[in-house]
Amino acid sequence: MRNPKQTRGKQTKSKIINAAFELFSEKGYTGTSSNEIASRAEVAIGSFYSYFKDKKQLFIEVLKDYYDNISKISFSNINGTISNLDDFLYESIKIALKAHEYHPEFHREVNIMELADDDIKKLIVGYEKVKFDSFKKLVEPYKNEFKNLNFNEALFLIYTTIENTVHVITFSTDTNLNKETLIKELISMIKSYINA
């Protein structure tokens, strides 16, 4: 596979990645062919295969770009002036929502591919570990509030509860759900768990 050094080659590769991102979002991984990607990118199919071994390698490249962009909407963006756990949880949930709302169509396809392919699952697990470690580091100042809990396990449950709830909020078709109310109830539930 070529790693382009010249501007034209870099532009061609970028066009293929962008076209793939659009098509995977619109039609899914299995519903998209290499020929369609090349056509959308306005490049010859030979160019496609000079940059990518196959469609799966391209999906992995698209996934890496996606997570690079998601990382810019990360827990590290939480305001350093926050001084209590309630505000921290509120900001964490808002950031998780913002990350899930970044191209939700592609996010759905990522969830499908995580279940369908072990290599992609391994990559996603790696990214999720980085996110969790970032979250854990930011919760450390509030560790003394976890008096009767095993900190690591409790934090894992809190993190996964936030992620799964945000996932449901983002992808639910139930329009009667009030986002702000759900966030408040989620914070209340987490606080009750910590203080039990």
From TrEMBL:
Domain of life: Bacteria
GO molecular function, one term: DNA binding
Span of domain HTH tetR-type: 10-70
Residues in the DNA-binding region annotation: 33-52
Family matches, as PROSITE patterns: HTH_TETR_2 (PS50977)
Keywords for the protein's UniProt record, in alphabetical order: DNA-binding
InterPro entries (alphabetical): Homeodomain-like_sf (IPR009057), HTH-type_Tx_Regulator (IPR050624), HTH_TetR (IPR001647)
Name of protein: Transcriptional regulator, AcrR family
